[in-house]
Amino acid sequence: MDITLFIAAAIKIGVFIGITMTFVSICVIFERRFSAIIQDRVGPNRTMVPLSILGFKKDFALPIGGLTQPVADGLKFILKEDFTPSYVRTVFFWLAPVLVVVPALLTMAVVPFGSPMEFGDTVIPMAVADLNVGPLFIFAIASLSVYGITLAGWASNSKYPFFGGVRACAQMISYEIALGLSIIPVLMFFGTLNLGHIVEYQVANGWLLLPFWGEGLSLQRWLLLIPLGISFVIFTTSIFAETNRMPFDLPECETELVGGYHTEYSSMKFALFFMGEYAAMVVGSALIVTLFFGGWSIGFGIDGLLPTGAWWVSLLHIGCFLTKVTVFILFFILVRWTIPRFRYDQLMNLGWIVFFEAALINVFIAALVVALPSIGFMGFVIGFIILLIASVLLIMIAKGATKKPSATAV
Predict the structure, then answer these.
(1) How far apart are CA 73 and CA 64, in angstroms?
(2) Closest by alpha carbon to 153, among 307, 264, 314, 41?
(3) Of 350, 335, 336, 338, which is closest to residue 171 (Cα–Cα)?
(4) End-to-end CA distance of the chain
(5) pLDDT tens, position by position, 72-123
(6) Measured between alpha carbons, how far is 145 from 151 in angstroms, rounded to an integer?
(7) Separation of alpha carbons 246 and 334, rounded Å
(8) Calpha distance 362→181 (Å, rounded)
(9) Could you tell me which residue, 15 or 237, shows the higher pLDDT?
């Protein structure tokens, strides 16, 4: 093995773990400060360094606006008592937090976070694993986190955490179906599952939802904005549900569940669940940026003016990628603190009755637009009419399935 590739792989692993974990910490301070702005309060603006425990007269406040708050949170969780109830299933009780946080970290490994960098004759892609089945790998690994949540509820050996685990499992499975269907039009358009190639296409021909240069100016590409826009809405909303974020945090928030599937957890095991949630939010934001908004691309033809493979260009693209991810993380936080949560029946109906049917119909709409040059205008019109009739029948069946039976007089 080339020593250059070996060293580069080791550096990339460290960078991607560092970026993900750093963003997890940053998300905490973002959440607190952004929610404080929305609710018109101060939020964390200082965190004392506890010098008094070393014999000094008073603690010292760092003048950096509360940015040390995540450090204080981490120390608090580490120093809290790690209590394991005697009645739990111990092995699975300890395993569950790991199964939540590890898949969230692994899925980030296939996301390209910068343009390829050249060292002599060696081209190093800015992704830990440049797989040709990137989205499939992400869905396969991310879906493992549901086992951690289910195990947490079951291993607690208590009915309230068990109910929370079952509800979280049902919610995640429901929205994974819509999540997978929503991405099919995107993959049909690109014709590849390699996330690096998807980003490179957007660099040359316009971001998926902003096709303002290259081949993105064609009529067919603008017609595709309809199904691709629907895919974006369904995909983004499903990411909220997959990460158990507000307004889809019902497995944790309902009062009859006490605290949900992690009721019996404390200390760092409790913290791992929240690290997994924030890491999944980072990965979800990175995937949205990669598929729909050009990934590391600066956009608008600027990337074509920069030298290919230069180290400073790769660093510039990494900064661009992280900026986009930060914007979507702030969007996640904004939604959490502005939209009230659904009832559980509304949540399940949205996943099975609305998003499932909408994503399925959207696949056929995208297929019609993609096939437009081959089938011609008349073929497109005939196909659209058939699809419209089938969609009406599907909606009528779905509405009939949700209709409550009328009460009969005794």
Answers:
(1) 16
(2) 264
(3) 350
(4) 80
(5) 777 888 888 778 888 888 888 888 888 888 888 888 888 888 888 777 677 7
(6) 10
(7) 10
(8) 9
(9) 237
Nearest C-alpha neighbor of 321 from the set 42, 46, 16: 16
Question: Which candidate, 163, 154, 166, 165, places its Cα nearest to that of 88?
Answer: 154
For residue 302, the 8-state DSSP code is -
Distance CA 259, CA 168 (A): 12
CA distance 299 to 263: 46
Q: Which two tokens stand for residue 341?
A: 């949560």
Write the CB contacts of 61 (distance below 8 Å, at least 6 apart in sequence): 46, 47, 48, 49
Q: Is 97:269 a contact under the CB 8 Å cutoff?
A: yes
Q: Are 149 and 168 in contact (CB under 8 A)?
A: yes
Average pLDDT over residues 249-253: 69
Token pair 């981490």: residue: 74
DSSP 347-388: HHHIIIIIIHHHHHHHHHHHHHHHTHHHHHHHHHHHHHHHHH
Cα–Cα distance measured from residue 383 to residue 402, given in angstroms and rounded to the nearest whole number: 29
DSSP letter for 207, please: B
Distance CA 382, CA 302 (A): 41
| DSSP 8-state code for residue 215 | G
Helical (H) or strand (E) element with 117: strand 114-119
- The pTM for the full model equals 0.85
CA angle 143, 289, 187 (to 5 degrees): 65
pLDDT in tens, 147-164: 888 888 888 888 888 888
Query: Quick one: how far is CA 176 from the chain centroid?
Result: 12
Task: Indicate the SS3 state at residue 119.
Answer: strand
Is the CB of residue 320 less than 8 Å from the CB of residue 327? Answer: no
Are 252 and 260 within 8 A, CB to CB? yes
Across residues 369-396, what is the average pLDDT? 81
Q: Read off the amino acid at residue 88.
A: V
Task: Decide if 142 contacts 242 (C-beta within 8 A).
Answer: yes
Confidence of residue 410 (pLDDT cuts 50, 70, 90): very low
* Dihedral-angle region of residue 13 (phi above 0 means left; psi in -120 to 50 means alpha; beta otherwise): alpha
Q: Which residues of 118-133 are buried (b: 16+ CB within 10 A; e: fewer)?
A: beeeeebebbbebbee
What string of DSSP letters covers 52-88?
GGGT-SS-EE-SSTTTTHHHHHHHHHHHS-----TTS
